[in-house]
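---------- Forwarded message ----------

FYI, see the M18 family aminopeptidase record below. Original note from H. follows.
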Amino acid sequence: MSEAFNADRLTRLCDFLRQSPTPWHATQAMTERLEKAGFQRLEETANWQLTSGQRYYVTRNDSSIIAFQLPSGTLKTLRMLGAHTDSPGLRLKPNATQYSAGWLQLGVQVYGGVLLAPWFDRDLGLAGRVHVRHFDGRMESVLLNVERPIAMVPSLAIHMDRDVNAGRAINPQTQMAPVLLQSDSAKFSGLLATWLEEQHGMRDVDVVDFELGFYDVQPPSLVGVRQELVASARLDNLLSCFIGLEALLESDGSQGALLVANDHEEVGSASACGAQGPFLGDVLKRINVQVGGGSEESLIQLIQSSIMISCDNAHGLHPNFRDKHDERHGPVINGGPVIKVNANQRYATNSVTGALFRDVCREADVPVQSFVTRADMGCGSTIGPITATEVGVPTLDIGVPQWAMHSIRETAGTRDVEYLTRALKVFLNRPALY
């Protein structure tokens, strides 16, 4: 295999991860790169005028995004890449202010399948979107990112919990509220007003609503004697969003290609902007009307002539927990992208789509691995089966291996970033899918 450590790409990855503490920030960061590359913004509420050979993007809920490029000739097929913008975490409750032992705390609700223990004793920032009303009655939605450490969830001393290392349950209602300020009277609304003024110059606005969550402010880093690893929050699944975007931007534009990054995968995808919602289907219908055959018949033909690669990280073989993997299906870090297979359709891969990806990796000079859960363990899922069910497009599930999935800080291989990007570029550029 050719050299796979790409320092420039890893720098861009770390910048993207740092800029993307929430799905809304991730979508904004992606739109900025797309616009710099010449992609034109579309609005769902406007009439679309699509032109062959051009590139476009559209967002929904400001947290999901679809970017696509049209070939200069007739659109007969789309090479699709799928990922998701959300990650498990701690989100604020609407009436978040609470006090205990002379401290201002904020009540949280758990978003997704969070690994709670690593959240203790971390420097936490706060980010999300806020809706405000100006003095003239105008409503505005703005992004907020308090990047400095303003909160922490302190551990209980081992002297007061002698059995803690033997394992104990963590109660998110009573034990996970971060502390922000030593006060029994300060209001979160006052802090929020201060941050809005600092970041947006807003004064005398009413906060109408918000969606905010805590995150670890420790920046991404390259770890290991030879920098074999990248460690960061939200690698699941911003790493796939980044790799898919890199591949799309570096593709030659000869083929019809589409990248979709949905919100709400970690909570089941059942939303208007999630993979179970109509977002992708709506865009495909409009593309077909504009530059396809325009009929329901031609839409079905387009979808069945296309392929979706669902990109979501895989469970890498853990050196301290080797027994958690099937001994023949333990993907190694920096061993190349992983084809994820499940007979019960928790992953959408079948032998046809799996064979296609193996051939793509061969052409890209990239190693490829397989993952199957142990027969005595349950299996997670991705947007792959959901997209296949909702849209009907032939689909496979792949991803790069990682450790500590759903932790506040996750780990993946630096060479795998380059491996998967290369493979996806070949997929987007191939004159023929099969």
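H. also flagged this: Residues 125 and 147 are 5 Å apart (CA to CA).
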